Structure formats: structure tokens, C-alpha cells
Amino acid sequence: MDFNVRKFATDAGIFFSRAVQFTEEKLGQAEKTELDAHFENLLSRADCTKNWTEKIYRQTEVVLQPNPGARIEEFLYEKLDRKVPPRPTNGEILGQFMLEAAKEFGAETPYGSTLIKVGDCQRRLGGAEREFLQTSSISFLTPLRNFLEGDWRTISRERKLLENLRLDLDACKARLKKAKAAETKAAAVPDFQETRPRNYVLSASASAAEHELRVAQTEFDRQAEVTRLLLEGISSTHVNHLRCLCEFVEAQAMYYSQCHKYMLELQRELGSCSGDIRCPGSLDVNCLPDRSPTDPSAFLPLNSSSPLERDALQIEEVQPPASGTRKAKVLYDYDAADSIELSLRADELITVYTVPGIDSDWLIGERGNQKGRVPVTYLELLS
Description:
alpha+beta, Substrate Binding Domain Of Dnak, Chain:A, Domain 2, 8 helices, 7% strand
């Protein structure tokens, strides 16, 4: 019990000494040991890494799981060290609803058979999303969380210990300074009435303060070196996060590639689903030109006209109406697929109008002496 009381009293004294030193530093009444510029840069870099890693981690969670209730549920399961129960994705739920609706309407009907095809595609899209979420969580979110909950907590703990030792060091410096000042003053005015000279006592006090200072300096230097090594490890953290970021991008690319593949297959199925019933304005995917998925022209309206309709429209014979022409700003570059279309360049202004018989997703565009069909989705109509 005596030992515990002594330890408590010692800890309380240390805490009080640190509090006094910290307060005097804030008030400008005490000197503060400054860290070297390189160390300060390491501290700043570590804080920047922590702040941005936390922001990226939180926002990635939102992107992968927009439902805040689901995120809270996953967080609670993780803290309870329990496995999160499987949850179907929205695409899988939609696909299941479509398949159930097809059973009600009849799989042999045109609507029912189309619901089956679309529902099956939605389920595959949902499965691809599930795989993407799992891959991203393992390869990207987990390393970021491990840094925040592991490495960063260790760095914070060592930084706090370094700050406490710095306060102890500065407190020792202040005590030694006061002892030296008192010793100098006593040496100048000795007291001959004392049995033991006062300067002898003050000299012993100054020697004790010097010893405390050497011990405090040694502990501070040792802790500074430990903290420096941890802060320099932030470079390795950046390398690891870079690798994880590349894996995240690869997972995204694979996911969107799968989705694009599934949708192309669905378009082909719907384009040849039957000879009697055809989806309004559907496009035969086999007639699409080979274009990159990143090319906006790869996503032209599904109800664009067929080659026969293109041939029936003679651009040379089209005349602008007496009224109804408008100016339009081009949003994206567009390369004409044939001679009846007009190539576009982003941000240019053209004159557009509609004519009888042309599809609603297309307009006639004029630029000087050039004339041709242009897709509405590439334009911003101006008043």
C-alpha cells in the first residue's frame, strides 16, 4: 500500500510539473526545446498522410456502400468480431423481382420472356457488383483501416510519450537555471551566521538538477530516435497504399468491363428475341461500329435509325424550315459514321433543326456549307 501511495504521489508530481511547464510555455514564460526541421517535416507529413487516408477511406466506404444503415451494421458486426451476414445487392434483388414477375405474366409471352432475359442480366450485374465490393474491401479498404487503427495509433502513442519527455526535459532545464541563479546570488553575499554555508547547499541542489537534466536528455533523445524511425516508415506506407490503389483501379476496371459485356449480350438477345415483337427503337448490336467503351459514341441512343432509314434520308435534299432553327453547343467530339452524318468538335456552335421523318434522338446540324445528322445527346440546345 505504501508503494502504491508513493507511486501515486510521484505520478501526480510529474503531471503537475508538466502542466506547469506547458502553461508557462503557452504564456511565453518558459523556454521550449524545438525539434529540428527534418523532424518537423516528418511530423507534418505524417499528419497529412493520416488526414487524407482517413478522408479517402470514409469516402470509399460511401462509394462502395451508399446505405449508411448498412455501413453501421457492418461496423457493429466488425466490432463484435462476428461475420457479416450475406446481403443481396440491389441488382440481384431487381433481377429476382423480374424473374418472379415473368412467372406471373407467363414466360411464353413477349413481356415475360423479356423480363426473364433482363432479370437474368440484372442478377449477373449484381453478382459482379458483389465480387467488386469484396475485392475492393480486401485489397483497398482493409490496408487503409489497418494503417489508421494500427500504425497510426502506434505513432500517436510514441509522439505523446515524446511530448511528455520534452516537457520533463524543459522542466529540468528550468530547475537547473533557477538553481544556478540562486547559487550565483548566494556566492556573492555569503551568510557567516550559518553553521553550513548556504552556497554549499545550493551547489548540491544545482548538482542534483544537472543529474536530472542529463537523465531527462538521455530519455528524450532515445524516444526522439524511436519516433523518428516510425515517422520515416510513412514512406513505406505510401508505397503500400500505392499498390493497393492500383489493385482498386484494376478491380473497378474489371467490374465495369464485365457490366459492359453483360449489357452488350443483353442487347443482342433483345435485338433477336423474336421476329414479330421487337423492343421499340431497339438497336441491333451487331451493326454497331467497333468503338472503345470510353468513347461517348459507343452509347448512342438505342432508338437510332437503321441503315435502311439512313439511306432513305437524303441529306442533300433536306432544307431548313422557315422557322424553328436553333443554336446548339457541342458537348463532346463526334466522328461521323457515314456520309449523312456531321462530325462534331467539342465546344463549337452549330445550327440545328428537325425535319419530318427523322428520329427524335437526332437532329439536322449545319456548320457553314456542311450539313448532316447529329445526335441530340452530344448537344446543349441554346435558347
